[in-house]
Amino acid sequence: MKRKKRSEKPRKTILIVTANEAESLYFSQMRKDSRYTNMTVIWDEEATGVEDLIKRAAKERTRQKYDSQWVVFSFEDFGMSATEFKEVEMIAKKRKVQLAWANPSFSLWYLLHLTSPKSFVQSSELIDRELAKVLPQFDSSAEYLLSEGANLHLKLFPAKAQAVVNASQYNERTIRDAGGIAPVSMTKLLNDISTICGNADMTYNQKMIGIKNN
């Protein structure tokens, strides 16, 4: 008697296109640390605006048949205004690309693992200085993530749930001062990653470095 072959549904896939190299490196760290083999991260070096990132994500979806596609950027990456954001948001919806952003810089997402600021923080330099108090030698560059910050995702991972709570509280307090647009929208992306990639598999690395929450 012949054995029946097991038929398994192919795993869904997710694409993340980033505006700069540091953002790409952070999500690449997440992919490696969590063993998310069905996540693809691309840094679009030639993009001059969020619309270019959206076009790249839509093109890759058509070429590779991704199930979910995201564009990650900060307002600082392209000097974006609230008006410009609303325009690219409409373009993204038409192209079936989801957006995840931080205002002013992506470092805000790191900071929310530590604390939820009481008012809208417009200075990326201030955010970086606060992070440097907890993360020695921190800066927001790609060079940091390739050297001292090579384990940044591992350091932040234990505070992931708290970051989601802090982000929600921060958005509620500051959305008016931020031009009616939530300053950070990472939670939906994280939820989509969990849905598609599953829970992070951290078993191979038991010596994660914790961070102190404020």
Main sheet attributes: strand count, strand direction, barrel closure: 4 strands, parallel
Strand content: 5-15%
Mean pLDDT: 92
Overall strand count: 4
What is the H/E order? Answer: EHEHEHHEHHHHHH
The low-confidence parts are none
What helical percentage do the residues reach?
40-55%
Provide the number of structural domains.
1
Question: What's the end-to-end separation, in Å?
Answer: 64 Å
Short summary:
With 214 residues, the chain is an alpha/beta fold. It has 10 helices and 4 strands.
Describe the structure.
The protein has one domain (about 15-195). It contains 10 helices and 4 strands. It is an alpha/beta fold. It is globular, with a radius of gyration of 18 Å. The model has no long low-confidence stretch (mean pLDDT about 90). The N and C termini lie far apart (about 65 Å).
List keywords for this structure.
45% helix; globular; alpha/beta; four-stranded parallel β-sheet; 10 helices; 10% strand; single chain; 214 residues
